[in-house]
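>> received
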Amino acid sequence: VQLQAFGGGLVQAGDSLRLSCAASGRTFSNYVMGWFRQAPGKEREFVAAITWSGGSTYYADFVKGRFTISRDNAKNTVYLQMDSLKPEDTAVYYCAAARSGNIRSRGAYDYWGQGTLVTVSS
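>> returned
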């Protein structure tokens, strides 16, 4: 699976942004899709994940109620709608695909996109 994330940019605190991740290659719908982020000087951390059917979603506590993950298997695309952005959300955001395992763990993911930078100014 090849993944390409895009949609990042510079926004102000309180603004919204939608990230997209386009997948190609293997059957997209077979994979759990996740979003991770990495801020400067910090480790990459789990943000959100969605099961192959879209029936279940998972979020890190720090984004609950603000971010929404969704997917369109017909378009081979997963989205991350980010609302009420805060300066601490500034990071490079990565999408990833997993067949199984602990979907909150980086180790479960087999494929990664190149990342897209989100910068939130105060």
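>> The chain has a mean pLDDT of 94.
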